[in-house]
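Take a record:
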Amino acid sequence: MGGRSVKTTAKAGVDTGSKREGQEPFIGVLRALAEAYHAFHGYSATHVRLMNLTPAQFDIIATLGNTSGLPFNQLAKRTLITKGTLTGIIDRLEAKGLVRREVLAGDRRSFRAVLTASGEALFVKVFPQHIAYLRRAFADARPGELEQMAGLLRALQQRFREATR
């Protein structure tokens, strides 16, 4: 895994799985989750920036692709971008001619974001390229490994949802 020895990994501040005195056992899980997310984000963002987009802009274009548009509240939920931040990102995508706002029928205070023809063309071009780029990270996955990872992540998600209730 990355060619780093356990000794080197421990020096770099990465939890190697050993429990520290007085540390809760789940802390290693949370640390691994955060580090996995940061590794994914760094890998993905490198490619997205080559497309002259920010990761958040790409996320919005990818989410709106193949849809007739989404209300801001749904778009915020699907992208995990707060509504306040979403407005600024939509502003920048509008300035690039990739997204437009439409007033929702029956609620003149609410908008939905819709890809323009240029935005849809960009989606059709960059989304498959990015999927191919991400596929490289999973190319050597053993049979059943992806399903196992997804199952464990869903179980973790469920634990947090239940704890919230």
Q: What stands out?
A: The chain is about 60% helix and 10% strand. The mean pLDDT is 88. Strands lie at 70-71, 99-104, 107-115.
